[in-house]
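Data availability excerpt. The first of two example chains:
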Amino acid sequence: MTILIKLSLLSLLTGVIVLSVRFLIVPGINQASLALKFDSKARGQLLGYVTSIPELVIVISSAVSGVFDAGFWNIASSNIINWVLFLIAVFAFRQYRDLKNKAFIDEISFGLISVALPLILYAFDLKGSALLATCLLFVFFVYKALDRKFVQRASETKEVDEEVRSLFYALSSIVVGAILITLSGWYLGGVAKSLVVELGVAAWMVGWILGVVSSIPEMSGFFVTFQKHYKAGTLKSLDDTQETLDALVASNMCNLGIILPVGMFVALAV
């Protein structure tokens, strides 16, 4: 009965995260980007960073609760699941040919690195040192430097024509959504501790469960972005793939190079 209660709580918190992303975060980012005149790449990266909030909260909560392994696997599994969800969205909207464009080579390369590195760390049992955490932070800054150096727009097509609301409205939606996701993610960390410590569920298994949950914001972002361009008739412009690919890579690299090191530092401190 206890495990059913925990799973029910996990489902409830998942629902809060999904609704927060779908109706607050994604629309808020879209409106803020339009108001600030961001291009598709900037919109995608902003979406990727904001939708990584659940991973950040879960990793910190797991580290504080003494079950950092679950947090580690949350990151590793999230980066894998994000790729799977991205490819599902790409194939669902028949945009797979866009990935052959040379303009996307750097994003795809960093996206693959974001999946490979956590698995390498696990294989060599390198999951908890200050030196490693510092090196991962350096990897993120290398990603940002190279991304800025080799940035090129896949196209210069007209942006999707949408009604632009006030920037205050957009930022308010993002902040409220982020607060709801943060609270839900923190309680998810508590659920992780209960499953691992009290019920004896393997940490890697809990991490994968949390990985599925924390990848829901990215999935929502991918499909909403493609749907937006589909309705506007701009799916052939490459801007949609640019936006979703940058959302994927920004989220995964943030998970690897910012959130995982933060979790390591917290675990070492605790």
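And the second chain:
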Amino acid sequence: MASAYQSARRGAAFIDRSTRGRLVVSGRDRASYLQGLLTNDIPAVKAGEGCYAAYLTAQGRMISDMWVYELGDVILLSLPGETTAGVLAKLDQFIFSEDVQLGDVSETFAQIAVVGPDAARLVEALLDAPPATPLASLPEHGNMRGHIRESPAIITRVTATGVPGFDVYIDRERAGWLQEQLAAAGAQEADSETAEILRVEAGVPVFGRDMDEETIPLEAGIESRAISMTKGCYVGQEVIIRVLHRGHGRVAKKLVGLVLDGDAAPAAGAIVKSADRPVGEITSAVRSPALDQPIALAYVQRDFLATGTVLSVDGARATVTALPFVDVAASGCSRTSPSA
């Protein structure tokens, strides 16, 4: 695990993300159709671009989050595996006269993340032809098509892994070969534990653990990335606008980072306390190699959100900390302090 972690930070590592779901939305009305359902501005996303978005209930609760990529002729949605079937069924219910077709390609494609400072070089070396735009120049959510060993591939720029890199979508039967080629080029495979450490150090919430069907996006702090404040109506917008405008963005609880004393990371579900008063709950926790101490994501009541607030978890001191815990640069990573 330690070796793979360092590879992700200093060189390159790969993470199998094939358990995520993959939907395609085709037809000339695909963007306007999704515009009325998702939280971000979908028609503003041009070919080769993408965005992060959420799909909400009418009550403003999350059905799922997802990455939305306009490929030029279809839109690709990458979303948590456990929400894929439900999202597909709900999307299908809202097709009336629109020229829109939906497809589940989760079993067709594998999805391998290649992350770290050397990720662009390794992925470019796998392509049958040099890309028109160097991968290192792709903006966040940028995407392109290519071929790897004559097999069609889609490359997307991602940061959701915790370390900047690329998701490579390739025919599932080629997945093993792709991982062998990456390993031969010097990338190490990051297991689920390593991937979790990288994600939590970056302060990236994941649906099913840090967000669920009861979460309002504002509570998870994803609104700046997932919600367009200028687009027209979408499902759940009324609740979001009410909280933002009438409530000035204040919610009863919010996801924060905690840096903890001691050696062991607390379990998910552990209670966060102020003195003896329960004020929150841990959702994700790991021991951070970069900080050499436990860190956690937790929902905390709004009176205890200020950076530097001292709380406790299982008797250990827990300090509210600005996210991300670790800032990643091309040359490595820098630490953030509990009072940053």
